[in-house]
Structure formats: C-alpha cells, structure tokens
Amino acid sequence: FFFFFFSEIFLGETFSFYMSLKNISRDTLSNVVVKAELQTANHVHTLKNSENNPLPSITPGATEDFTMKQVIRDEGVHILLCVASYLTPNQGRRKMRKYFKFKVQQPFIMDHKQTVVGEKVYIETSVENTTSSTLCISSIKHIVNEQVYSVERQMKQEKHYLGSQCINNYVCVLNKKELGEEEQQEQQQEQ
C-alpha cells in the first residue's frame, strides 16, 4: 500500500517523501525488497534499494516505513517509481509497483538589461516569482569580470520577499577599469 501527495515542486528544492509498506494479507511475507527511484528525462536516481539487505519478514497488519530525500536538479517531468517485492507462503515471489508522475518547474524567471553611460554600466535584473506562494530571496549577486570592471553598487545582501506572480528589479552599477599596458596588448590580440 502506497500513499503519495504532491504540492508544487520547484527546481532546487529537496524532494522528501515518506513511504509506508503495510502487510494487509493474512500471511507473513518474507524476503521483502523495497526499491524507490526518481526518474527524469536524463537521470535515474536510486533513493532506496534493499535488494542486498531485504527485510526478513513482515507479519500480518505490520508496517515498515521509509523516508527518502533527493535534491531536485532537473526541470520537467519526474516519475517516482516505488516497488515492493516479497515471498508469500503459497504464491512464491510477488511484486507491486506504483508510479507517481509530477512536474518540476522553475520558481522564478530572470531577465537582464544593461545600459552603458560613459564609463559606467548599469545592469538591471528583473526577478519574477512564478509560484503561487511568496519566495524569500536571500541574496542576488552580479558576478563580473574583475579585470575589466569594478562594482560600484551591488544589491544589499539581505532577505527580500517576493509575492506570488510579482516582479522585483535590482540594479548593479559597474565602473570600467583602466587597462594596464599588458592588458591592452592581450585585448588587442583577442581582436
């Protein structure tokens, strides 16, 4: 018996789930093997495989519970496959499979605009919350080529809350550095 419930799942979250296996028969089941896999278009993540260490037995009415976790690194359709196989006294080896399909989405959309004014570059980053709940953004940092630019103004490293379907804009100001003689020669060679 498997029970499974999903809410929204987003890229970067830790997917945690609880699996409960209950013997609802009148017989004691033996050599019980439990497997759980999280499948994506590109990967198969084994979350549980007790093949090398099966449960010796599960008596009638008894349950075995398992908790598993996996960081979600792929966007798109995911399939959680749960399998329990066991020996029965009369029917031999039996197997039960359950599939749970769900979609993983990006929690936000980012867009950049840059404007050059003299020696300064203004970078505006728009962050849109695509979820149905509020996001907590702990930091946004623009990473720049420090040989060419110095950061004049970066977003403060403090928490920001972004409501559902809302957009916030963050501005970073860069100053172009003076190139030394060696750096100017490297830049000319690249061109």
Task: Describe it.
With 191 residues, this protein is mainly beta. Helices cover 5% and strands 57% of the residues. It contains one helix and 14 strands, in the order E-E-E-E-E-E-E-E-E-E-E-E-E-E-H. Strands 1, 3, 4, 5, 7 and 8 form a six-stranded mixed beta sheet that branches. Strands 9-10-14-12 form a four-stranded antiparallel beta sheet, with no helix packed on it. A hairpin with a 2-residue loop joins strand 9 and strand 10 (120-129). The radius of gyration is 27 Å and the shape is elongated. It starts with 8 loop residues before the first strand and ends with a helix. The mean pLDDT is 86.
Quick description:
5% of the residues lie in helices and 57% in strands. It is mostly beta strands.
Mean pLDDT: 86
Quote the distance from N terminus to C terminus.
66 Å
Structural class: mainly beta
Number of strands: 14
Instruction: Spell out the helices and strands N to C.
Output: EEEEEEEEEEEEEEH
Ranges with pLDDT <50 over ≥5 residues?
none
If you compute it from the alpha carbons, what radius of gyration comes out, rounded to the nearest whole angstrom? 27 Å
Q: Report strand %.
A: over 45%
Q: Helix count, per DSSP?
A: 1
Helix content: under 10%
Large-scale geometry? elongated
Q: What's the layout of helices and strands?
A:
Blueprint: E1 9-10, E2 14-22, E3 29-39, E4 44-49, E5 55-58, E6 63-71, E7 76-88, E8 92-105, E9 108-117, E10 120-129, E11 135-137, E12 149-153, E13 160-162, E14 167-176, H1 181-190
Parallel strand pairs: 1-8
Antiparallel strand pairs: 2-6, 3-4, 3-5, 3-7, 7-8, 9-10, 10-14, 11-13, 12-14
